[in-house]
Amino acid sequence: MSGAKSGPRLGILISGRGSNMAAILKAIEAGTLGAIPAVVLSHNPKAEGLVTAAQQDIPTFAELISEFDSKEAYEAWVVGVLKDHQVDLVILAGYMRLVGPTLLAAFPNRILNIHPSYLPAFKGLHAQRQAVEAGAKESGCSVHVVDDTLDGGPLILQTKVPVLPGDTEASLSERILVQEHQLYPKAIAQYWEKENNRASVN
Ligand code: GRF
């Protein structure tokens, strides 16, 4: 990977496909996001995104949560890997697990997530299906800071996406995903800049 050599060091957590991760890596490569992809982790050793990351020479780590005695022990392992790679920001990119107190405490206000709805609407799993079933006229995607609430932390950036007549969960997901890929790199850049400005004023 020959992209940016400055900016926050990112630790990216994925569960599967990793298309948001790929969009972030592409933005770094294109120079539109100043960040360093330090490490990619998954609780799913079969996550396709691990292959994408490895092809770009980014260190990858994967362990099943069931290999650990507890969720705390699993998260302690995650924190260890993130710290070993001097990660500044933890990026949840299709990470389908709730973040517990161990990870939150190690990276307060330093964990970001993308959710496929215009929050606070349709929190939790199957957000696109929820939007279709509710007969919503619009939904979207949101990037927020992770706290101890479900999809409830401070919002960074959001994009609206119309729900079209005849939309299914799949068709709406596909159109929202296109917007997610645009939104996440922008939100990371904006959040990091704001946090740095705040730090330099204090
Ligand atoms: C995305 O829609 C994301 O918002 C949601 O899960 C999906 C993951 O997709 N949390 P990918 O793994 O980034 O392709």
**Gross geometry:** globular
Number of helical segments with 4 or more residues: 6
Return residue spans where pLDDT drops below 50 for at least 5 consecutive residues. none
Cα gyration radius (Å): 17 Å
Which whole number gives the mean pLDDT? 96
Give me the side-by-side strand order of the main sheet: 3-2-1-4-5-6-7
Order of helices and strands: EHEHEHEHEHEEH
**How many strand elements?**
7
Tell me the strand percentage band. Answer: 15-25%
The residue fraction in helices comes out at 25-40%
Largest pleated sheet: 7 strands, mixed
Q: What oligomeric state do the depicted chains represent?
A: single chain
Bound molecules: 5-O-phosphono-beta-D-ribofuranosylamine
What's the N-to-C terminus distance? 35 Å
Indicate the structural class: alpha/beta
Key traits:
202 residues, alpha/beta, 7-stranded mixed sheet, 6 helices, binds 5-O-phosphono-beta-D-ribofuranosylamine
Summarize the topology.
Elements: E1 9-14, H1 19-30, E2 36-42, H2 48-55, E3 60-62, H3 71-84, E4 89-92, H4 101-106, E5 111-115, H5 127-133, E6 138-145, E7 155-162, H6 169-201
Helix pairs in contact: 1-6, 5-6
Residues 14, 16-20, 93-94, 114-116, 177, 180 line the site of 5-O-phosphono-beta-D-ribofuranosylamine.
Question: If you had to describe this structure to a student in words, what would you say it looks like?
Answer:
- The structure is a single chain.
- The protein has helices spanning 19-30, 48-55, 71-84, 101-106, 127-133, 169-201, and strands spanning 9-14, 36-42, 60-62, 89-92, 111-115, 138-145, 155-162.
- The N and C termini lie far apart (35 Å).
- The protein is globular, with a radius of gyration of 17 Å.
- Strands 3-2-1-4-5-6-7 form a seven-stranded mixed β-sheet, sandwiched between helices.
- The model has no long low-confidence stretch (mean pLDDT 96).
- Helix 1 packs across helix 6.
- By secondary structure, the protein is of the alpha/beta class.
- The protein binds 5-O-phosphono-beta-D-ribofuranosylamine.
- The site of 5-O-phosphono-beta-D-ribofuranosylamine has 13 residues, from helix 1, strand 5 and helix 6.
